[in-house]
Amino acid sequence: MPLRGRLALLAALTVAVAVAACALACWFLVRAQLFNSLDDALRDTSVQPRDVVDRLQSGQCSPPDRPAPNPFGATVQVVDVSGTSCVIVGRKLEVKQADIAVAKRDRAEVIHRSQGDGAGYRVRTTPVPGTGLAVSVARPTTEVDQSLRNLALILTLVGGAGVLGAAGAGVALARAGLRPVDRLTHAVEHIARTEDLAVRIPVEGDDEIARLSRSFNAMTGALASSRELQQQLIADAGHELRTPLTSLRTNIDLLVRSEESGRPLPEEDRRELLSSVRSQMTELAALIGDLQELSRPPGPAEGAEAQAAAAVVGLHEVTGRAVARVRPRGPGVTVTAELEPWYVRAEPAALERSVVNLLDNAVKFSPEGGTVDVAVHGGELRVRDRGPGVPESELPHVFDRFWRSPSARSLPGSGLGLSIVARTVRQAGGDVWLRRPADGGAGTEAVVRLPGAPVPPPDTPPGTGPDTPPDTPPDTPPGTPGTPPDVPPGAGESPGPTDGSGHGPGHGPGPGPGQRPG
């Protein structure tokens, strides 16, 4: 049964129960009132005891089948203590034990229903003073019974009409009330059929249906945005993969043609081509790792996994290890560190990878002989370089996926490093941003703020404390195959993640945090 049918049936049943209860109450009240009126009429009927005794002594007991004059306006019957009755006028009535009790003076008066010749009567029995008799005065209940039957019929008809009306009103109300639900149903069916997420439901009012419509619109909007982001990610990933693949194919084609033609390349050119192929393969591997890291949209399941992998770590210790890893990659750049103790709860490997990304970016865009200042103070990690800096108009975009500064698009990289930094920091409950240096000098300052404390919590479990190094191997020394330190990351972000597989931090030093990310 459809929902509107169930609502109409429920409304009809509710009205039926209410009407039945009211009808029964009305019928019983009217019945009691009618019988009270009849009892009052019996009490007002004047029957003199002397008249009854005189008629009884004169033998004027009328036989049941012989009509007689009725000066009393009612049936009158005399009952003695033995239960024998004598009809003074009217029809012979059934004698009850209560009538005999009155004759015996056990009761002063009784009023009850009785039968006489198949008809119903209302009987009032009172004692006759000075005798062992009781006189019963009765009136027929025909009119009362007929009135009650008519009332029952009227109430039944009115109640039935009310129930039918309630059912019709229930159908109309259900149709009107469920019209927004019908629109929602049609919209869902349309989306399921056409996958058109641009459908929106008009919202009217502030009731539950309006809340449901707003929630549905918000859900479809989020799905549409997620689809657009997915399509953009695929398009951007394809664009980023095309450049190294094209270069890799060109270099391999040169080597293959050299072998097939029998004209070997000079040894120096051959080494350069192989080195370029190796670098491009490393860049591809790092780009694929970055894509895997960012391909999953944030959600409850991912948050639960990150929470399960989180541990109490020293931000100053993580930063110290990251500084030690980055220094060999920029021999012409001085990296200074002032690290105060600060303990946070985060995923150790991901946090160190993010710090390395920021430092690599700073080193990449620092000029020869420049300085990168790294400081951990009051829960903030600050990385300051003295490179060309990022224009104010580009600062809001540096954490976007695949975004690259126009000045750094010629450099290799995927544009995912800073996105990974932002993702890791936010999963740890912190925030990250870029800004111009407070002293007005050159370069840009990256700031990471994480909740924590200057001392570790006392209940830190063994193996998860600040002295436990993250699951990241020591930095691969420069020149190690598969980790060329001279391959910089893509613009607009820090280098890709250090996944502990020997590929180093992404794909080489990335753009500085705030200095022409590209």
Structure characteristics:
518 residues, alpha+beta, five-stranded mixed β-sheet, 11 helices, rod-shaped, disordered C terminus
Task: Summarize, please.
The protein is an alpha+beta fold. Helix 9 packs across helix 10. It is rod-shaped, with a radius of gyration of 51 Å.
Describe it for me?
This protein is an alpha+beta fold. The protein has eleven helices and 13 strands. The protein has helices spanning 3-44, 49-57, 97-103, 142-177, 179-194, 208-261, 267-294, 300-309, 315-326, 348-365, 417-427, and strands spanning 75-80, 85-89, 110-116, 119-127, 133-140, 311-314, 334-339, 343-346, 371-377, 380-384, 431-435, 445-449, 452-453. The chain has a five-stranded antiparallel β-sheet. The chain has a five-stranded mixed β-sheet with strand order 7-9-10-12-11. The longest helix is centred in the middle third of the chain and has 54 residues, at 208-261. The two termini are 62 Å apart. The model is unreliable at 299-304 and 462-518 (pLDDT under 50).
Helix content: 40-55%
| Spatial strand sequence of the major β-sheet | 2-1-5-4-3
Radius of gyration, rounded? 51 Å
Number of helices: 11
How would the blueprint of this fold be written?
Elements: H1 3-44, H2 49-57, E1 75-80, E2 85-89, H3 97-103, E3 110-116, E4 119-127, E5 133-140, H4 142-177, H5 179-194, H6 208-261, H7 267-294, H8 300-309, E6 311-314, H9 315-326, E7 334-339, E8 343-346, H10 348-365, E9 371-377, E10 380-384, H11 417-427, E11 431-435, E12 445-449, E13 452-453
Parallel strand pairs: 7-9
Antiparallel strand pairs: 1-2, 1-5, 3-4, 4-5, 6-8, 8-13, 9-10, 10-12, 11-12
Helix pairs in contact: 1-4, 6-7, 9-10, 10-11
